[in-house]
Each structure stands twice: as C-alpha cells, then as structure tokens.
Q: What sequence folds into this?
C-alpha cells in the first residue's frame, strides 16, 4: 500500500481533474471536487515526506516493470518537500480563487486546468525517469496553457501566445537532449543514468547534452538569457492564475535542474557549474533591476521572480551542502511569500480598480490589515532578519563566501537591497502615500458590496500564507537542518540509487 | 461550404470512418492502430460532417459536449490505471479476463483495452473541441 | 544511412528555426512543429538504426528485435506535439483576430507598461 502513494498526487489529481471536467456545468461542484482533491493529495504528500525522511525513499514501479526498464516514481526528501510545499500553496490559491472566481466566472475550465497543472507539477517532482519528466512537463504546460488564456482579452492572449511558444521551444530542446542521452547510454531512468554516467561517461557529448538541458530547463525557470517571456506573460491573467504560476511553474524548471545537475551532470563541474554560477549572478541582477523599474504591483513581483530564481540557481551552482540547503530553504520561502504578494496585489488591484501604484494611494488608511500583510511579505521577501527570507539568503551568502565566489555573492547582497527598495516603493506609493488627486476613494464601503465581500474572503488566503511564512521564520532552525540533510542526500545520492536500482545502485563510489 | 460532392461523399464516408476507427481501436493491441489513431479517425468523421453540413449539424450528431467526452475518457483511462491497485498489484499492472466464446475462440479483455478506450474518447473529444472552435472562429470572421 | 538522417535532421532544424524567425504567426507555428519533428527524428537516429522485427510479439527467439523505447518515446512526443500544435493554432487564430494582424511585431500589447 505504501508503495502506491507516490502516484496519488499525480494520477489521483488527474483523475479528479477528469471528474471536474465532466462536471463542467456545475461550478460549485467543481470547486468542491477541487478542494477534496487538493486536500487528499496534500495529506498523501505529508505521508510521503514523513516516510521518505524516516525510512528512506519510496519507489513505485509502474506496471511492475523493474527499475531501469519501466517508469519509476520516487518520493525522496527533495520531491516530498517540494510536493508538500506546492500543494500547500495550491490550497491557499484555491481559497483565493473560491472567493474570486465564483463571482467573476473566470470560466468552467479553471478548476480542471488547475488540477491538471498541479498534477503535472507533482509528477515532475516525483518521477524518476527523464522521459516521464518530459511527459509531466507537457501535462503541466497543457494545464497552464488553458489557465493563462482563460477568458482573456487581447493583452492576455498575446501574453499566452508568447508563453506557449517559448515553452514549446524548450520542450523540443529537452526532447533532443533526452534522445541523445538515450542514444549514448541506453537508458532514461535517472538513477540508471547516474550510474552509467559514472561508469562509462560520455566523452565529448556530456557537456553538449548538459548545455541542451540547461537551455531547456533554463527557459522554464526563466534563467538569464531566457527570461524575456516571463515579464510579457505572467501579469496578464487574473491574480489567482498569476500566483499559481509564480509559485509553481518556474520552480518546476529549477527542481528539474537541481535533479539533473546533481545526479547526472556532476562530472564536469568546472564547465557546467561555472556557467550556472555566471548565469545565476546575471539573473539576480537583471531580476532585481527589472522589478525596480516596473510600476504595477503584480508586474513588479512577477519580474522579481526572475531574480529569486537566480538565488536558487546560485545555490545549485556552488554545489556545496550549505549552498544547496540555502537554495532549498529559499525556494520554499519564496513559493509561499511570492504567492502571498501576488495575491495581495490582486486584492489591492481589485479594491483600487488599477494596479498601477502611481494611481493608487492611501490603502493603509482604509485597509490596515491588508497593508500590514503586504509589509510583512515584502520585508520577508527582501530578507529582513527575523523573517523567513533572511535565513535562506544568509545560508546562500555564507556558502558563497566559503566557496570564494566573491562576485556573485556581492551581486546577491546588492540585489537584496534592491528588493527591499522595490518592496518599499510599492509600500510608499500604494499603501502609505496619499491618494493622488482626482482618484475615487476606496475606504471600506465605498466599493460595490460584491467587491467588498470577495476582498474580505480573499484576504484569508493571504492570511494563511502569512501564517506559513511566520511558521517558517520561527521554525527556521529545524527546517534548515532538514534542508541540509536533503542537500547532503542530493550530493551523495547512494541512498536514492539503491532505493531505485536495488543492489546495483551500490556500484557508484 | 456548400458542395454537393462533399455532402454526398460525407454521407457515405461517415459510417465507414466510424467503423474503421473501431477496427483500429480493437486491432491496436497487437497491430498498428490503437486508441489514438482510432480517436483521430472518428474525429475526422465529425470534422467532415462539420465541413459539409455546418457546425451546428456536427454538434447535434455528436450529441454530447466534447468536454464531457474528454472528461469521461480521462476518467476511464485513469480508473483502468488504478484498477490493478484494487487487486493489490502495482499501479498500472495489466489485468486480463479471458472468455471462451463459442464459434470464435478466446476473447481476452483487459485493463489496457479500457485505457485505450479512454484515449479514444479523449482524442475524439479534443479533436472535436479544437476543430469546432477553429471553425467557429472562421465562421465568425466570415460573417463580419 | 546515419549520414542521410543527420542531414535530414539538420534540415528540419534549420527550416524550423528559419520559419520561427518569420513574422507571420502561422509560419511561426509551422516552424515549431518542424522543430518537434526534428527532435523526433533525432531520437530515432540517436537510438540506432537497425533492421529488426517488431518487439514484444510472438516472433520466436533468435530473431533480432527492434528497441521499443525510442518508438514509444517518439509516439508519445508525436501525440503531445499534435495536441500542442492544435492548441497553438486556435490561440494564434484568436490573437490575430483580436489584434487584426498576423504579424508578430504587432503583438506588443502585453509588454506595454501602464501609462
């Protein structure tokens, strides 16, 4: 029974998505089915994480085909942790969407597409097979394609077209990489690939294939030269979709990168990881500077996703346990805080009728709760000490100094100040500063009753995320220890290999 | 489109395409074919109908909304994948039932067939959904 | 044999990228699907071109069987490519309808900042 569990957050969610498509005439039933599906998958993912932590990775052989031949699903610490975080954030987004879409009728496709996308995300986290990873990427992309285009006007569909086409190029590159890897090593199972790569190696080809994967996952993760699609597309759909994308989509690319570059392409680190480090540094700088130049709340925080991806990749590139642990901690923190910020932006935009902060103001007077929620999240995102963002950045910067990567570390520190800067820019304009002349007031009761009640409901989703963020801040010590153990497991994957391949995995090292 | 040849051809082609799609679906286990190709060929029947007799006629012939087809197909596939877990076997293990049909021989029906059947409906639904919305956009453009 | 395939793959990639650099939306989508075909052919070639019988069927022992994995991969990729291309066509159609243009240079709406 235990061995069945890794497949539930994947195939189970897709089964529920099918149920919810069939109910496309009954939006309320769809909403309920989605909640049920997410809650059950969340519970299963907690069990997975618990078991993976205390009794080693759980391996599921699909169709009972033994490991290198069939498809495997592996729930180890990394995939367990990511699945739990992804589903937790998704539940909060569901809460937000339940209060907003029921009134605005974003369309009957929202919940099935959301479920399919989250199922695909969990599949990408849990799979142990490179080609299967491609399939889950496509599943989650299909869900996201529907979400990003849903009920949109010209602006949104244009963003969607850019998003879809860039992601398709990335898929084609991924496919080519997987094909070459199979041709050279004769397997696509990630554990088997790791062993064969170690034993046979791929002279000449290894760096080229690594570069293909770097491009493929880099596009998905919005890494430096490939980030242009993100600012063009992410802010166009409604806030719930924007938050879901900000929390999950780029992180899937990052996790795939962490998997591939710790497990398979870890032999020519002076080429691959140096390249990653340079790209990470530039990404951090570009993300922070780009975010500083924007004027709409959700555009600012969508752009800043790029910078934070840079921090995570910096952890991967430094390739030490502390750096990887910092990257994992930072990723979890960022998924939660970024979702909260994007949702806050959505609520503020709904109340003000615009998200352009030059035309907002005085939100603090009428909505102190929303203002404090925003302030907490923005400070945490910038990494102000008692809050969760500080610990991840501290570990990363410490690891950067230890490795002697001065330039990247300096950029990372400077970008932190910039992120405080754009966080405060929104605070000064939209919340603290006075309302510009000639703009209608938004004190409670001034808007239509439906906007009021939906905003009151949606703030609960933000409150839940802030609770999680505070929990991360208070429990930073234990979580950091857990991330450290996960990072050590990633850098020395014997346990993972043995769990998947049986005794054959012991051949490594 | 208003062409006598296309309309007359469609009347004869439609049943042939549907029968051929079922043939592909059933033969697909050991021979070329399967749910995907079968579903595409079945989708072709409806596309042809939409081209020859108009979108509304094709929608009426399909009777159900394409989304419902997609949902049911997905459900069937997913349930056939989970079925083996009820018997205590790993996820997606094929389970087969064999009957002796008098005058024909052995008839084997297994969960892979239901998976394929689900794929068939999925592909049919998706094809119709996409082609119908393309035709819909084309018709709207033609009117303005 | 491999050489011919390599030329074909290179040709597909070149044509795909060339089409993607055109400004017309439909040509762009065609380019994307050419790129997908190039990747499929690449998998097929990289996994080795052998003359062999169909795998996993009752062929008796001693016969050379083809490797089923690349075929399964390509089949999956083709199916996914089909769905995605169809979706792209619908999306591209809607976009060009809304923006009254089929030129990608006209699609600047989503990048324009609020003024």
A:
């Amino acid at each position: 029974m235990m061995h069945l569990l890794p497949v539930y957050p994947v195939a189970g969610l897709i089964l529920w998505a099918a149920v919810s498509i069939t109910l496309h005439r009954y939006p309320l039933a769809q909403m309920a089915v989605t909640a049920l599906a997410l809650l059950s998958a969340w519970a299963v993912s907690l069990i997975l994480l618990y078991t993976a932590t205390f009794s080693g990775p759980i391996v599921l052989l699909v169709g009972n085909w033994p490991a290198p031949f069939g498809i495997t699903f592996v729930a180890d610490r990394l995939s367990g942790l990511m699945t739990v975080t992804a589903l937790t954030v998704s539940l909060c987004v569901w809460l937000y969407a339940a209060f907003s879409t029921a009134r605005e009728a974003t369309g009957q496709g929202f919940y099935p597409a959301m479920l399919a996308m989250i199922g695909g995300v969990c599949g990408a986290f849990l799979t142990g097979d490179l080609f299967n990873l491609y399939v889950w990427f496509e599943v989650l992309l299909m869900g996201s394609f529907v979400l990003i285009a849903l009920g949109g006007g010209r602006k949104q569909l244009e963003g969607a077209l850019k998003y879809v086409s860039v992601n398709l190029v990335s898929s084609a590159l991924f496919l080519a990489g997987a094909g070459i890897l199979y041709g050279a090593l004769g397997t696509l199972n990630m554990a088997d690939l790791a062993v064969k790569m170690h034993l046979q190696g791929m002279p000449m080809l290894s760096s080229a294939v690594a570069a293909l994967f770097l491009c493929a996952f880099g596009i998905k993760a919005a890494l430096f030269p490939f980030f242009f699609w993100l600012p063009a597309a992410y802010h166009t759909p409604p806030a719930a979709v924007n938050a879901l994308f900000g929390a999950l989509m780029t992180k899937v690319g990052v996790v795939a990168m962490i998997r591939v570059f710790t497990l398979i392409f870890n032999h020519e680190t002076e080429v691959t990881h140096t390249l990653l480090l340079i790209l990470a540094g530039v990404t951090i700088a570009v993300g922070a500077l780009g975010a500083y130049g924007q004027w709409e709340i959700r555009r600012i925080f969508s752009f800043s996703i790029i910078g934070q991806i840079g921090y995570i990749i910096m952890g991967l590139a430094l390739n030490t346990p502390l750096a990887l642990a910092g990257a994992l901690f930072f990723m979890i923190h960022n998924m939660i805080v970024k979702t909260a910020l994007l949702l806050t932006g959505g609520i503020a935009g709904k109340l003000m009728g615009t998200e352009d902060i030059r035309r907002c103001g005085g939100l603090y007077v009428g909505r102190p709760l929303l203002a404090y929620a925003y302030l907490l999240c923005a400070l945490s995102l910038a990494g102000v000490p008692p809050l969760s963002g500080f610990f991840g950045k501290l570990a990363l910067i410490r690891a950067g100094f230890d490795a002697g990567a001065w330039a990247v570390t300096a950029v990372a520190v400077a970008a932190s100040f910039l992120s405080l800067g754009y966080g405060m820019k929104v605070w000064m304009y939209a919340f603290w500063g006075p309302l510009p002349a000639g703009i209608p007031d938004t004190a409670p009761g001034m808007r239509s009753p439906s906007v009021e009640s939906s905003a009151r409901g949606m703030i609960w989703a933000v409150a839940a995320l802030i609770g999680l963020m505070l929990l991360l801040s208070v429990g930073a010590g234990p979580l950091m220890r857990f991330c450290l153990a996960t990072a050590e497991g990633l850098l020395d994957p014997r346990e993972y290999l043995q769990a998947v391949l049986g005794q054959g995995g012991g051949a490594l090292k | 489109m208003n062409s006598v040849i296309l309309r007359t051809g469609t009347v004869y082609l439609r049943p042939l395409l549907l029968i051929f799609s079922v043939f592909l679906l059933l033969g697909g286990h050991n021979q070329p074919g399967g749910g995907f190709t079968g579903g595409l060929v079945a989708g072709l029947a409806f596309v042809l109908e939409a081209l020859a007799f108009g979108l509304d006629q094709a929608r009426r012939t399909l009777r159900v909304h394409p989304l419902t087809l997609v949902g049911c197909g997905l459900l069937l596939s997913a349930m056939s994948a989970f079925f083996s877990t009820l018997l205590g076997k790993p996820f997606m293990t094929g389970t087969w039932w064999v009957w002796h049909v008098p005058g024909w021989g052995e008839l084997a029906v297994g969960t892979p067939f239901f998976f394929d059947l689900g794929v068939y409906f999925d592909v049919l639904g998706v094809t119709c959904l996409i082609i119908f919305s393309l035709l819909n956009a084309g018709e709207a453009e033609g009117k303005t | 044999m491999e050489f011919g395939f390599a030329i074909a793959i290179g040709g597909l990639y070149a044509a795909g990228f060339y089409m993607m650099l055109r400004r017309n939306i439909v040509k762009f989508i065609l380019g994307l699907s050419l790129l997908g075909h190039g990747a499929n052919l690449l998998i097929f070639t990289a996994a080795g071109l052998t003359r062999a019988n169909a795998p996993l069927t009752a062929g008796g022992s001693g016969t050379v069987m083809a490797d089923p994995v690349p075929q399964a991969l390509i089949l999956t990729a083709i199916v996914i490519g089909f769905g995605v291309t169809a979706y792209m066509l619908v999306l591209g159609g809607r976009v060009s309808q809304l923006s009254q243009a089929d030129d990608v240079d006209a699609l600047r709406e989503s990048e324009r900042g609020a003024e």
In short: The radius of gyration of chain C is 20 Å. Chain C has a mean pLDDT of 82. Chain C has three helices and no strands. Chain C touches chain B at residues 57, 79, 83, 86-87, 89-90, 93-94, 97 (CB under 8 Å).
